[in-house]
């Protein structure tokens, strides 16, 4: 749950894509990410931010061959877990949009209802109701 006094997200999974504009469209259409910012020209995306409706998001950009990018993540090599309140509807949406199912919708031993799919670039996505353990107060 996001509250008005919650700090903004400070951890962002970030990855590269061979066709970043197509991947952005897929992540919006199939999973429900919101396109927050996209910088670049033509087919090249220098930086994009996609927000998740429940909070947080991901960053991505086009893979480049200039060797000076300093971010050597191979396209299709990222995996993300994303919390959702309605995994059944999201699973149906993702499958309808063409996501490759890796693990069908199921209830887990740790109380989550979740599934796993692959996007067109090869990245792995797991969506579920498990929100993680509460933070410890020190």
TrEMBL record:
Matching entries from PROSITE patterns are given as: VOC
Which Gene3D superfamilies does the entry mention? Answer: 3.30.720.110, 3.30.720.120
Please list the residue ranges annotated as the VOC domain. 9-130
Q: Which InterPro entries match?
A: Glyas_Bleomycin-R_OHBP_Dase (IPR029068), Glyas_Fos-R_dOase_dom (IPR004360), VOC_core (IPR037523)
Report what the protein is called. Glyoxalase
**What is the originating organism of this protein?**
Modestobacter versicolor
